[in-house]
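During the no-cost extension, the postdoctoral fellow (Dr. R.K.) reprocessed legacy sequence entries with the updated structure-token encoder. One reprocessed record is reproduced below for audit purposes.
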Amino acid sequence: MQPHTLLFETSNESAIRELISLAQRLGVKVTDTPSPAAKPDVAERARLFRSLFGAWQSEESGEELNRQLREARQSTRPDIEL
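Re-encoded structure tokens follow.
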């Protein structure tokens, strides 16, 4: 019997995981390859990355967060006099 190749194309990650799980349970070889069209080009990826800058929102100000970080620091190195 000749091998068969099936191609499933979806952006539904849950459906893909289910299909891969089913194939593995059936002992079927699975090759999960994202569609080239699904990959944004370099300019789009850069735009998406830059869109995250400044996205952090918090009740504390930047100064308050800096203070909290400084106070939370722990050092196990002994003090050394030079």
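The first helix runs from residue 13 to 25. Residues 1 and 26 are 17 Å apart (CA to CA). The remaining legacy entries will be reprocessed before the final report is submitted.
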